Amino acid sequence: MSRHNPLLWPKPPVIWSYGIAVLSVAVALTVSRLPAIHLQDAPVSLFLCAVLLSAWFGGIGPGLFATAVSALAFNYYFLPPTHSLTLKTDEIPRLVIFVVSALFVGSVSAAERSAMESLRRARDDLAEKLRQLQSTNEALQAESRERKSAQESLRRSEGYLADAQRLSQTGSWASVVGEIRYLSEECCRVLGFDPYAGQPLYETFFQRIHPGDQAKFREAVETAERNKADFELEYRFVHPRGELRDIHVIGHPVVSPSGDLVEFVGTVMDVTERKRAEKERERLRQAQADLARVNRMTTMGELTASLAHEVNQPIAAAVTSANSCIRWLDADVPNLEKARAAAARIVNDGTRAAEIISRIRLLFQKGTLQLEVVDVNEVIKEMISLLRGEAMRYAISVYTELASDLPRVMGDRVQLQQVVMNLMINSIDAMKSADGTRELAIKSQRAENEHLVVSVTDTGVGLPPGQADQIFNAFFTTKPHGTGMGLRICRSIVESHGGRLWAAENSPQGASFYLTLPAKFDARREFEAPA
Q1: Domain that includes residue 512, residue range
Q2: Per residue in 458-481, pLDDT tens?
Q3: How many distinct helices (H) and strands (E) make up the chain?
Q4: How many CB atoms lie within 10 A of CB 124?
Q5: Helix (H) or strand (E) holding 222
Q6: What is the pTM of this model?
Q7: What DSSP state is assigned to residue 260?
Q8: pLDDT in tens, 207-242
Q9: Is 302 in the same domain as 327?
């Protein structure tokens, strides 16, 4: 508002104040002498206005200056004789009245301006104080909000801490020599004290320690106090109802800047359940160790049976050849040629049984495959010739569909023979008691990425329902007298050759086993038996 009202403008500089005084008197003199205004006989009001303005804008100094100039102009231009500065005795009263009136008006104007300035300064000071009070109030409110937020955070933290202590059965404490200063609620619950009955006495606490652990506890605490060091121990604590609890305590010394011991702070934890669990785990470990010993003995029996299963075929063939050899030699005219051929077959079957045992040993120790170029179709034909009699015995028809362009593989011939023989024997076993047509189909074909695929399909009882993914596990079998090692060994052999072995249902009945082998195989590849 002061910017729009000239009377409320601040005081100008001193030179401008005196300039305003001169200008005001000049304007009053000029206006009073204008004929059109008719103020030649009453110019006092104009000069008083000039003094008033001068005193208002400039203060006492410019007001007095304007009074002096106005008195001179009034004496010179309006008191007869005019245009003379000589003392006019008859007009002295009039001049004195004019001067006194001008002084009064000027002083009143200056005082009014001074009072207004004081009020404005007071108003500005009050507004500044009000702004400061508002700022202080806002700061206090913000501080109050922060304090409330901090208190709320502290309450939440204390709540979280209490919940964490309750869940972990861990309490906090503080004490000095022979005096308990603080026990948290959970600490009271852990030790069997009422958390709302006040802090218990140290003597009461110490008496509840199991008599067999009191000396240990006292020694640990005294050593920690003497050395101003941390301490940690476990002791037994008797609750009021006689229940014995295992307590784990940790203490830490609080030392003053001068090095004096102030107090100990720490935690207590109820480890009773942990102790019981450890004892239970120890009993379980012992039972597992006993079971492992039994399993090892059982496994040895299973492996022995598996080994017998693998070498049964060549040994049976050797026995047959030996009987034939004896028959040819016992004839009236011994047929030495046929007896020699039978003896040669005995040698071959014995050698093959030894190779099977050697290859099975490789499955259970780290070793290098004995690789050679193998025609898989030829391996299939050899196993069909070996097992044809077994298939005919159970009226099983054997069909083959072997690809003529099948690539050869680098592999261990004896182990691949084991795989094909095992799969064929399993199929024959699955069809021994099956109703309907009994057919065993063996196919080979070229696959993508320089691989070949061999499938063995039967029309037997099929895969066990809900357990098809377990048939390759060690010691899993569906046969009454099976070892559960055949398919596991087959998969290990195929995987050691860089291939894969899996099973699937055969529609409408039976099962199919598939194996893939790479045509190119790293001869330096090593393998380990499965755990």
Answers
A1: 365-527
A2: 998 888 776 666 777 766 666 655
A3: 12, 14
A4: 10
A5: helix 211-227
A6: 0.37
A7: -
A8: 889 999 989 998 988 898 888 899 899 899 998 888
A9: yes
